[in-house]
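Ticket opened by: R.M.
Priority: normal
Category: complex prediction / small molecule

The reporter submitted a protein together with nicotinamide-adenine-dinucleotide and asked that the result be attached to this ticket for the collaborator who will pick it up next week. Submitted input follows.
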Amino acid sequence: MSRFLVKKVAVLGAGVMGAQIAAHLVNVKVPVVLFDLPGKDSPNGIVTKAIEGLKKLKPAPLGVASDAELIQAANYEQHLDLLKDCDLIIEAIAERMDWKRDLYQKIAPHIGAHTIVASNTSGLSITQLSEALPEALRPRFCGIHFFNPPRYMTLVELIATPATQPHILDDLETFVTSGLGKNVVRAKDTPNFIANRIGIAGMLATMKEVENFGLTPDVVDDLTGKKLGRASSGTFRTADVVGLDTMAHVIKTLQDTLSAQTDPFYSSFATPLVLKTLLDKGHLGQKTKAGFFKKVGRDIQRFDLSEGDYVPAGAKADEVYGRMLKKPAAERLKLLRNSEGAQGQFLWAILRNSFHYAAIHLASIADTARDVDFAMRFGFGMKQGPFELWQDAGWLEVAKMVQEDIDAGKALCAAPLPDWVFKGPVADAGGVHTSQGSWNPSTQQFEGKRELPVYARQHFPQDVLGAHAPQAMKSGTTLFENSALRVWTLDGEVLIASIKTKMHAISPDVTEGLMQAVDLAEKNYQGLVIWSPDEMFSAGADLQSMLPAFMVGGVGMIEGVEAELQNLMLRLRYASVPTVAAVQGLALGGGCEMAVYCAKRVAAMESYIGLVEVGVGLVPGAGGLTYIARRAAENAAASTGKDILPFLTEGFTAAAMAKVGTSALESRKLGYLLESDVVVPHKDELLFVAINEVRSMSASGYRPPHPRQFAVAGRSGLATIKGQLVNMRDGGFISAHDFHIASLIANVVTGGDINDGTLVNEAYLMTLERKAFCALLTHPKTQARIMAMMNTGKPLRN
Ligand code: NAD
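Result attached by the on-call engineer:
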């Protein structure tokens, strides 16, 4: 079998996108060389500046900022010979057809015979771009359209030309999916492809309706953000974040490459006056700190066209529309359409426009309706794509309402909805998505997803509403289930435990259920995976569920609850079968402890792991501190110095400052993942990888570690740490209560008032942990922190 191996990638263009794409390649361990034009002062000047910039950019493009040094800097004058060793070249230079084509001619002689070349253009014709390449290269050329910020936005559109070899696209889709963790949608080679075509046309249409209904950007963003199931930044703040110049580029591509003949909505693509005014003034959005909105001190202002200046912002939508938007889809759309107020009519108008636009263009821009809905979900952060919402609300009823508006001249153009909307298979099925597949108006069929071997790695891939895709929590065989936990298996060989509580909080039911799951796994299975389908591992022990125990039995009862939790951790660690934590999203406090006590961890790139108990005035009480002490002892034992304290400092600081890794990679730096743990770029592959880890560990004759004694830093280590804490308290960096908690943490991780180098076991340290935890529970300042967290969700510093 021949396999497309990506050993090295070249990214051309170290601008906003190129530099961040290079960063993401580093995140997923792909060596990358980043090119740009030679700089004025030094040949690699432009690139080295861009690499430096990556360390400070927010949201962070790199999992670990210092990994920026792994990006190799290059320029087109000196380093073109580096291209021959690259398996993939991604071009991301400025959005100009002539510049891109010139560059292709320059690099063509240096490209390897197997290399795939792909352009990250936002919307230029891929076919026209390809014409600048020698004929022999064209079968290996295509479009690869990432979304900004590329680490976090999961959509990548792949675009073929008539000359692109099909297997090239399959190879690239495989790499982009599994290697980079993205969701691939294939788009036709039409202006701005799918997401930007529909998304930007939608933004322009929205701006037009804003004028029609006389609304202001703050109210519009309130209406068109989370409440509408879209990105929380709404319409105008999204534009500011994207950059008004970038948006203007994409609009210009629409204006230059389309016409009233090719797009009946063409007249609505004129640049809105307010946007033009902002661009003329150089207000480009976030990058120039002023766009539709501007932050002045703590206040937000909005640009007011009639004033020609910024005025106070912060107006909210009428509450009644918030309530309407919570109703089921069918009722929601009817209520909005019939509402008398401008805000409701505006909402109906933008939804109607989006249905109208998507239906008219489906056949020309995409293969199926699924590709349109996926593009809008993954590229624009919508909860549902336009076809999904339409189908959810009742296909024919909505179609009739839209057509009535078109006939009444209320829509953006007079083009009627296509025939397939009203008659034939779509009308019969009640929508474009069915369990057989999604509608392709060109073939007049419902078509299933592309089948590539890489998709076998996703047990429960995301799918569109109406496709009736298997749901994880209803699949496989359930061994036992209650409201807190489901223990089940997909294959009869590996057991899976899925936590069901809110934020996957670890309640006594979860603890007990997991204990039973380990018992069962030891009896009948190769091992246990802890995994839940939603993007969250566990936000920690359930403080709320501890309250009744505290009220009834006081601290004594809580000590029992903590002891149970500690037993669970030890059970996970010493089980005779492998236990694997499949971590994604938050793994905090008790969630972090559960992960570190499993035999192994597989973690999605977007995993945020940490011991955060200090935030509620507590210390990690379920083995977290014992883990830190043991790891320090193990690391010290493996070193030449044998001194524990240097190895302890990092773990101590992480717990005392409640540090949370901002990626799986950073969580590893904090010590919550080991080098031997696996980081998985695509979260939908997590379960597959975890199950395979259990299988291979089991097949290699897994035995749990020996329970061993280990050395602690003792009273001298404690004294050193405390000395530093005193300085911090006296210098006003931490409060007296922070000092108290940190001292208790130091007491546990050093073993307390014993000689340094004393050998202890886990049970000894866990007892210290429990005592510290319970002592803090009765402290009024800790109680105030807990109450604040439960009431406001925010930590109180006291
Ligand atoms: P940018 O302006 O930040 O960077 C462009 C880079 O191209 C610069 O580093 C510049 O030095 C280099 N460059 C300029 N002229 C050149 C030339 N003649 N030859 C070689 N290099 C040249 O742009 P960007 O936002 O990173 O966009 C890059 C590409 O990615 C564009 O095609 C754009 O449409 C596309 N894109 C942008 C976004 C976005 O949100 N910014 C999203 C998706 C795709």
